[in-house]
Amino acid sequence: MIFPAKPAKAGRSPPNLRKARVNPDGKNVKRDPSTRNARCSAVAHALAWVVACATFPLIWMGGFVTTYRAGMAVPDWPSTFGYNLFLYPLESWLSVFDVFLEHSHRLIAASVGMLTMALGAVLWFCDHRRWIRWLGVIAVAGVSLQGVLGGLRVIADERFLAKIHGCTAPLVFALIGSLVTFTSGAWKAGTNGGENGPFGRGGSGSKGDRRLALAVAAGLYFQIVAGAQLRHLTPQEHASWFVLWVWIHVIAAGLLLLGILWVAWRLCPARGNAAMIARRSRLLAGLMLPQLVLGAATWLTNYGVPVWFAECVWDVEYTVVAGGAWQAVLTTAHVAVASLLLVTAVSLALWQARLEYPEPEAHGHE
Amino acid sequence: MGVAAMSPLSFAVRLALVVSFFAAGCGRSPPIEFELNLEGRDPESVSAKQAAAIRQTLTQLFGTPNEPRVPDGVPLDPERLAMAAGAVAGDAQGRQRGLYRRHCVTCHGISGDGAGPAAAALDPYPRDYRRGVFKYTSTRSGAKPIRKDLQRTLYRGVPGTAMPSFAHLAPEETEALIDYVMYLAIRGETELYLLQLVVDEQSYLPPDMDRVMEEGVASAAESWLLPQRRAAELVVEPPPRPPVDRPELLAASVAKGRELYLAKDSQCVKCHGPEGDGNGEEKELYDDWNKPKKGVTPEQTEALARRFKLPLQRLRPRDFRKGVFQGGSGPVDLYMRICVGIKGTPMPAAGPAPGVPGPLKPDEIWHVVDYVRSLAEGQRTAN
Questions:
Q1: Is B178 among the domain residues?
Q2: Other Cβ atoms closer than 10 A to B297
Q3: Most buried residue, B12, B263, B346, B360, by most Cβ within 10 Å?
Q4: ipTM
């Protein structure tokens, strides 16, 4: 001992005689890697959930910016009318509606960015799986890229960049949703240990079912891209493109509905599938049906009653209201639910893949 | 380990595919310019020199979509035009720029040709401003609309079509858009004059600016000022409606209206049918924007289609039983439609005009209005 022991304070035992917290193996809790890993995992998982829950409102807000055509409400970036993003006066932020939308979008985006960086850091330093650590880095890069794309859209005043920005946002959301899955205890435990196991009893469907679920996820993303073509129109585009994309979007919606209903039926518990697989497939179906209604409502509130509907079904006197609440909410909800569908489909595909290899993930550093 | 790892090569290939998907067509959008109005013309009939001369003349007179100009004698406010023109932008106080591109261009197009990116999916097509013809006005046949007509359309929208109500816009924004629509109309009419002068009459190039100003610009501007100058003659004010507050009065008016509706002189039945269901003997109806696309034979129509941006679109006479009236379903709106007609369509002006008695007198028009409204109400009651 180099330094003499400090005299104990009255009523307290000397520091080197304080009882250390030990785990059942007799190891100091603070120093035992397995306990530290468990804590880190819990933190990472919670943080992943926080980031995911913060990203969904961000997508809503971005949708509102497009719906209200407020993308150029703030002409500079990363500042806001010359102010630092976080120092823009509250009164100015709240007084002009378009500025409120765009600036709020930026603030939420900045928050999501910082949370994602925190998540990336936690994953890098705490998670023993190398691929998860790099996935965290990719998530940080993805969110940063989104921010830059959004900024460039404003600086260049380029609608094409707005389209790209709208197409990559759901991908980033899906990536963050995947991190929620990968950081969960159930994913790591992986054992398909009967009814009490993380997956419950049951499988994940046949190889064909897994491929179909993957195809559904890909199809949902394709739909998002097709929808972006309809939302981000540039004045110079020829009129025939819009009609083409409308048809593509509608036909793809029909095909996706069939695919999702088929997946939900194939993956139901009655067919011996794991409860968590069945839940996700039912959620997919549960979201798809309102999404179709929202799609029809989006057309109605933006372009009025189609002639074929008025002539053959019901001719209702309806006037489109530009900037109206219904138009804004229904159109933006259609966009937001599309992202939610994508995340759900990706989660389903991931869990189906996981059930193919239902062994716990190895501990220790790779 | 959980999920099977992807090989680096496989990952790189997939990433390259995704990047190339997004990068396809990347780069700045082409600059926004007015397009030359060659609708209905054989593109070969206009030489590059003629096209360039017309474009240059129009730019000199009217500027560009980003920097519009107001030629002398044109009754437009340059500040309002500046507010409506150019790229979409706003400032910290909420003052808007680029209103036309924000609210109108998707349907009406940069040149106001009614062939914006979304136009082909709509029925009816968005208005082509370039002839200066607008459907729902309070002015007599052949006259331009007054500002109030355009304000009404912007404020109420056009029910049953994709034309929205812009009631939420601030008054100065509405006025700016009205000025810009008039600007596009006057510019469009000048352009048509130039095409006639340069291409049809094969005038020398460059065109004589004095002649263009007098016969093109001034003529178009004057036509917009005329309804204001000769309001008594050209603007219709509906007379007071005869009393129909008692059921027997209304019933009598409806009966009289039906009689007039079915009469040969009023010609309503030809298009709207004896029951007012839009099932008249005239089936092939087209508005003035679509008529030039119709050939005598299907082959001709197909050949003509190549000269237009949007395909041929048929007109449907209104089915009164549905109660959906694009120009408005109120009594005054219907009065106007019957009295002054719907410009650019086969719906004629049935009301009297100075020096012209017209098929229907003002009182008679009110009776027809009551009859038409009774058809919609009757359907609602039956349902």
A1: yes
A2: 8
A3: B360
A4: 0.88
